[in-house]
C-alpha cells in the first residue's frame, strides 16, 4: 500500500516535470526571430570564389524594434583552424552596399570547439550587426570565406539570423 502511494507521488512529480519542461520548450521556441536561414557548403569544402547569398524582405511591421543580425557558422571537427575570417557584403533597400571583414574564433587556445554542438557538428553564432534598426525592403547578405585556403574544409553551413532585441 505504501509502495503504491510512493509510486503515485513519483508519477505525479514526473508528470509535473514533463509539463514544466514542455512549457519551457514552448516559451523558448517563441523567440524573437525575424529571419533564420542556412545554406549548405559543398562537402568538398568552401571554395574561396563561392558566395552564400541571403535575400531578406523586411516588412514595415518589423522595423520598429532594433534587431541583432547574426551569422551562424556550422562546422565539423575537420575544420583545421582556431579562427575563421569572412567577407560580408550587405546591400540595403536603398541599393547601397557595405563591405565588412569579420574574424571569429571557433576553438579556444587548446583546440576545444566553442559554440554549441552535437556529436561532431558545432554551431557558432557571431554577432554581426548589434542593435540595428532595419528599414523596410530587401536586404542582401553575400558571405565569402576569407581564409587563405582555395578550398576550406570543415565548414558545413553558413546562415543569417535576425532577431528582435529583447
Q: What's the CATH topology name of the largest domain? A: Jelly Rolls
Number of helices: 1
The end-to-end distance, rounded to whole angstroms, is 51 Å
Radius of gyration: 21 Å
- The backbone outline, from C-alpha atoms, is flat
Class based on secondary structure composition and strand pairing: alpha+beta
The share of residues in helices is 10-25%
Oligomer: single chain
Strand order of the largest sheet: 1-11-4-8-7
| Uncertain stretches of 5 or more adjacent residues | 20-28
Number of strands: 11
Describe this entry's structure for a reader.
- By secondary structure, the protein is an alpha+beta fold.
- It folds into 2 domains: 1-30; 32-164, Jelly Rolls.
- The chain has 1 helix and 11 strands.
- The protein is flat.
Layout of helices and strands, plus pairs?
Layout: H1 2-29, E1 33-40, E2 46-47, E3 52-58, E4 67-76, E5 83-91, E6 97-105, E7 116-118, E8 121-132, E9 137-145, E10 151-152, E11 155-164
Write a compact overview of the structure shown.
The chain is 17% helix and 49% strand. The protein is built from one helix and eleven strands. Mean pLDDT is 86; it is low at 20-28.
Annotation keywords:
single chain; 166 residues; alpha+beta; Jelly Rolls; 2 domains; 4-stranded antiparallel sheet; 11 strands; 17% helix
